[in-house]
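user: At home tonight, take the chain set out below, taking as long as you need, and be ready to discuss the fold:
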Amino acid sequence: MVFACTGGGILVPIFLNKVPVPLAMDAYPIAIACSFFLHYFFPILREVLQKSPIVDASFTFLYEVTRASVVVKFTGIAREVIPASDFSFPVFGPIFCGAISGCGGAFLPLNKGLDPIKSKGLASPMFTALVGATFYHLFLSLYGEENVMQANRKAHFATVLYFVLNNYNNKWGFNAPRPKDVPVEKKKKLK
């Protein structure tokens, strides 16, 4: 269970020769155990979450803020640790590390391999982690602090906003309603 909850916090520090998060922070395994016991012994909490849009939106917001912070943190650490090779800054290493940090639990235990993406492709958390890490890394590497004031904070905020809005859109959909007076064209069948 700890592997599934903190998969990215285990894999990425190992890639970067750091201590995995569950070993470095004693509060993490305790929080995961408390969460498990609450869900296991009080299943009514899941019903409250499902029936209350306000509670659901609040927990979704907190979850995505935390996940975006993990992606930003590990992308930033990878930017510092991985040296540049062919370009003036490391391009793919920080993006890979950031993407894995946001969804690494999907691939643990490691005997699952790439099974989570074989049948259905990238799940939304995997895709948002990849896009968020790419944006954060390229924004800071191309524009940086010398061109944008507080670039790190602005890129972090934009990444969090993307994660939250994407999850809200996946849950409730923010498609604008069509006006009733505009006819919708039907697709013609090919012969």
